[in-house]
Amino acid sequence: MEFKIIIKNNIMRTKEGQDRHDHKVIDDVKKLLNDGWFIWADLPGYSKPPQIGGYTPDIYAQKNIREVVIEVETIDSRDEEHSIMQAAMFKYWEKISPNRKFIQQII
């Protein structure tokens, strides 16, 4: 059996893991759009999210004064140093304002 490894943003995933990741991000984007959020997503066809402490989240969303960052990790990527450091930065970003929320999803 051959496994293809995809490296994106310094994260290694299998092709299957990357596909699951991208589908989950798309599902989350659709839900947020239906709920009236303005969306930036790290996917083709979307405006790229702003970097936070040097890291680009999968989704950055704004609604009124609220901000949400969503980061989707797969089992392949959740324990990588990049993922751990990125989550720590997004948690710090969240603590700066009561109007911010960081959501990490492991799929």
Features:
107 residues; alpha+beta; Trna Endonuclease, Chain: A, domain 1; two-stranded antiparallel sheet; globular; disordered N terminus
3D architecture notes:
The strands form 2 sheets. A 4-stranded mixed beta sheet has the order 3-4-5-6, sandwiched between helices. A two-stranded antiparallel sheet has the order 1-2. It is 33% helix and 30% strand. With 107 residues, it is α+β, with helices and mostly antiparallel strands. The chain has a single domain (5-106), classed as Trna Endonuclease, Chain: A, domain 1 (3-Layer(aba) Sandwich), CATH 3.40.1350.
Explain briefly what this protein structure is.
By secondary structure, this protein is of the alpha+beta class. Helix content is 33%, strand content 30%. The two termini are 23 Å apart.
Give the rounded overall mean pLDDT. Answer: 89
Q: What percent of residues are in strands?
A: 25-35%
Quaternary state of the chains: single chain
What's the Cα radius of gyration? 14 Å
Q: Based on Cα principal axes, name the global outline.
A: globular
Q: How widely separated are the two ends? A: 23 Å
Residue windows where pLDDT falls under 50 for at least 5 positions: 1-6
Biggest sheet: strand arrangement: 3-4-5-6
CATH topology: Trna Endonuclease, Chain: A, domain 1
The CATH architecture assignment turns out to be 3-Layer(aba) Sandwich
How many domains comprise the coordinates?
1
The CATH C-level class name: Alpha Beta
Instruction: Note the main sheet.
Output: 4 strands, mixed
SSE pattern, N- to C-terminal: EEHEEEHE
Helix content: 25-40%
Total strand count, please? 6
- State the secondary-structure class: alpha+beta
Q: What's the tally of helices?
A: 2
